[in-house]
Amino acid sequence: MSKKILIISASPRKGGNSDLLCDEFMRGAQEAGHDVDKIRLSEKEINYCTGCCSCVGGRGTCVQQDDMPEIHEKILDADVLVLATPVYFRSMNGQLKTFIDRICPIYSMIRGKDVYFIVSAAGGKLPVDSTVQSLRVFTNCLSGITEKGTIAVTGIWDAGRVKGTRTMEEAYAAGKNA
């Protein structure tokens, strides 16, 4: 059965390691017949949450005029969410955190989704583990989320170094089996 998959790439570098892993996940998912949409946060206008609380009780709306309303629709429509980030100081980067903060108007409406995490780190296992934990803090606020897997690469810094690694194969397989 075909699924709607939404990939959120927080990589600030097009062709960065986490972004390339997203592409490989997408390739596998498309080959399996799934409908896949990839959003690169760095190519979207996403303002910071101002804490105005207008969204509280506002039926999924935010007063800010940026690209988030279209992304909200895609999130609600998706069967599978893929959250991808490079590691910054043992956590997700600012682009992904800003995006997550702006989910507030719809977070109580996000239900019954499969979730994958994609993480790339120059360091080792500890930065990846702490980043995955920070991503779980977000997904634990949602209802009926099933964490399906984490695709992580460590020990690389330069953009594109993930090419040819086993992690690329893992990303492809995860997409194929989503």
Fold and architecture overview:
- The chain has 178 residues and is of the alpha/beta class.
- It has one domain: Flavodoxin domain (Rossmann fold, 3-Layer(aba) Sandwich), CATH 3.40.50.
- The chain contains 5 helices and 5 strands.
- It has helices at residues 17-31, 68-77, 94-101, 125-139, 166-176, and strands at 4-9, 35-40, 80-86, 114-120, 146-153.
- A 5-stranded parallel sheet has the order 2-1-3-4-5, sandwiched between helices.
- Helix 1 (17-31) runs parallel beside helix 5 (166-176).
- The protein is globular and about 45 Å long.
- The termini are close together.
- The model has no long low-confidence stretch (mean pLDDT 92).
- Alpha-beta content class: alpha/beta
Task: Characterize the largest beta sheet: strand count, sense, and whether it forms a barrel.
Answer: 5 strands, parallel
Reading off the top of the CATH hierarchy, the class is best stated as Alpha Beta
Strand content: 15-25%
